[in-house]
């Protein structure tokens, strides 16, 4: 179980690092745009992201 968790965490780091490596200026602009969002819209985006991840994990497993 720990092996799978650490592998998933490593993939998160790889995926998160792609955008700043490939397009740092676009990443910075995106982060500024996100900083201007309301707490409610960020929470909704987080909820949708988690629900999508759980759904994808259900179908993969």
From TrEMBL:
It comes from Thiorhodovibrio frisius. PANTHER family: INNER MEMBRANE PROTEIN, INNER MEMBRANE PROTEIN-RELATED. The chain crosses the membrane at residues 6-23, 44-60. This is DUF2065 domain-containing protein. The keyword Cell division does not apply. The keyword Isomerase does not apply. It comes from the Bacteria. Keywords: Membrane, Transmembrane, Transmembrane helix.
């Amino acid at each position: 179980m720990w092996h799978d968790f650490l592998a998933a965490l490593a993939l998160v780091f790889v995926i998160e690092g792609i955008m700043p490596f490939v397009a740092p200026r676009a990443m910075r602009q995106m982060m500024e745009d996100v900083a201007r969002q309301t707490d409610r819209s960020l929470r909704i985006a987080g909820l949708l992201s988690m629900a999508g991840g759980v759904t994808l994990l259900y179908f993969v497993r």
